[in-house]
Design a protein that fits this description.
about 40% helix, alpha/beta, elongated
């Protein structure tokens, strides 16, 4: 029995957007309980660098992205196992400030105030939350005013940390990130985005565990994992 369990145990490697950190750790633990002996290893970072790692041969079985653009890149590089790409969660973009901030901020237009000197967001060149923020600011004709104040984070969690530590006046993160640091940041406003904030997941074609990768993708879309995502503030796909 134990020899069989060891022989059939599988290590699954999942590269996932930084905003999924808390929810996916819980999903991984639940998956391991249901699949005795299996281990789920996570690599959390901004979505674009994860695509680069996979394209360079990193042994990854599953990729979960915070926007469609990063997953489109992975698809164009033929990294995805055909037919496995699915949307599994939604989110929203929010403007946050340190909990003890004295600035009178009510919305993104207030970022033009002279008193606001540092605004953090993910780097739009490589971080989905930065792309969403830039699109929203461009749509509101505010990008020209805000860009000179921008402090770009390497991931949404870095931007969250900057705000939580009071190192910036305001920042753009996802609603689910604001919940993680709810004692240290406050949500100023939910920011409408030109493109809905949706999260796709797919198995990686060259992954070391192709069958297990597909199984994990299916698990993320099943009710137990969807309930975990909902508890962490994510919406349904």
């Amino acid at each position: 029995m134990s020899a069989f369990a060891t022989a059939s145990a599988t290590d699954i490697t999942v590269s996932a957007a930084a905003s999924l950190t808390n929810a996916f750790k819980e999903i991984g633990a639940a998956y391991e309980k249901e699949h005795a002996g299996d281990k789920v290893h996570f690599n959390f970072a901004a979505s674009d660098p994860l695509v680069q790692q996979i394209s360079k041969g990193a042994p990854v079985d599953v990729f979960a992205s915070a926007d469609q653009e990063a997953m489109d890149k992975a698809e164009s590089l033929k990294l995805l196992a055909p037919g496995t790409r699915r949307d599994f969660a939604t989110n929203s973009l929010v403007l946050i400030a340190p909990a003890n901030s004295k600035l009178a901020l009510k919305g993104i237009a207030d970022l033009q105030q002279a008193a606001v000197t540092r605004v953090t967001m993910g780097n739009p060149a490589s971080v989905p939350v930065g792309r969403y923020a830039r699109q929203a600011l461009e749509q509101a004709k505010l990008w020209g005013a805000v860009e000179p104040k921008a402090i770009f984070g390497t991931s949404v969690r870095q931007s969250l940390d900057y705000v939580a530590r009071g190192e910036v006046d305001a920042g753009f993160v996802y609603a689910t990130d604001a919940i993680v640091q709810k004692d240290k940041v406050r949500v100023i406003a939910t920011v409408p985005t030109a493109t809905p904030v949706s999260y796709p997941i797919a198995a990686i074609a060259a992954g070391p565990q192709p069958a297990a990768g597909r199984q994990f993708v299916d698990y993320v879309l099943a009710p137990a994992a969807q309930a975990i995502l909902a508890r962490h503030g994510f919406g349904r796909p």
